[in-house]
Design a protein that fits this description.
- This protein is of the alpha/beta class.
- The chain contains 6 helices and 7 strands; from the N terminus they run H-H-E-H-E-H-E-E-H-E-H-E-E.
- It has a 7-stranded mixed beta sheet with strand order 3-2-1-4-5-7-6.
- The termini are far apart.
- The chain binds S-adenosylmethionine.
- S-adenosylmethionine binds next to helix 2 and helix 3.
Length: about 230
Amino acid sequence: MQGRGPISLLLILILIIIVISNTMNIETRNFDKDAASWDENPARVKLAQDVAHAISNQIVLTPRMRVMDFGCGTGLLTLQMQPLVNAITAVDSSKGMLDMLRAKLAKLKLTNVSATLIDPDNYNTMAGCYDLVVSNMTLHHIREIKPLMAQFHKITASAGHLCITDLDLDEGQFHHDNTGVFHFGFSRPALRRTFAEAGFEDIQDTKAAEVVKPAKNGEMRRFIVFLMTGHKTK
Ligand SMILES: C[S@@+](CC[C@H](N)C(=O)[O-])C[C@H]1O[C@@H](n2cnc3c(N)ncnc32)[C@H](O)[C@@H]1O
């Protein structure tokens, strides 16, 4: 009977790992391979328009504002906001996504947007001072959101704002492949607490948009995208 204890423990550990990896993927998603066709999905284009509209309803956008778009992708939200502000630093960890954005910037001859590749494992490399930090549909791809929120607070100017748009809790039904999805949507009260812990104040949340599409289980479903805003007062 001796020696059975460690073996049982190992089996239990393996079982736990299998269960966890089946419910929530632990790999990151390779966005490079999706970049070329990203904008072909009209729902993504509409979502960026709705989100830009929701942000401008909540925050007064001015021609002096310096903005960061975190997880900008091909710049769907960046390009909606660019005419309304002074400059946008669009950052992403996918070179493929940024190449698509750079091609658009060249075509449109836009000089107030810069596309910057960032290291997803070291947010401290994210520098600058921004009146507004926005991020659309990226937070659910971030394994540990607390260090990122702290970094957002650090790079937000005094009197600046953070605007996050992402999914309400979706039970893993929004993405048909959950590779690189570390959060199956967010509980707004829990995310409010994370905003507050990072130092943001006057936290508000509202519905920004909805996406109606077949869920992972095949049924048509309405997914709600919220906008959460926080203010840095000091
Ligand atoms: C679902 S896409 C959203 C893109 C864009 N915001 C939009 O609305 O179309 C998520 C984006 O976040 C980027 N991303 C994922 N993890 C990241 C990380 N750790 N740091 C920076 N960007 C990340 C991906 O490369 C991808 O472009």
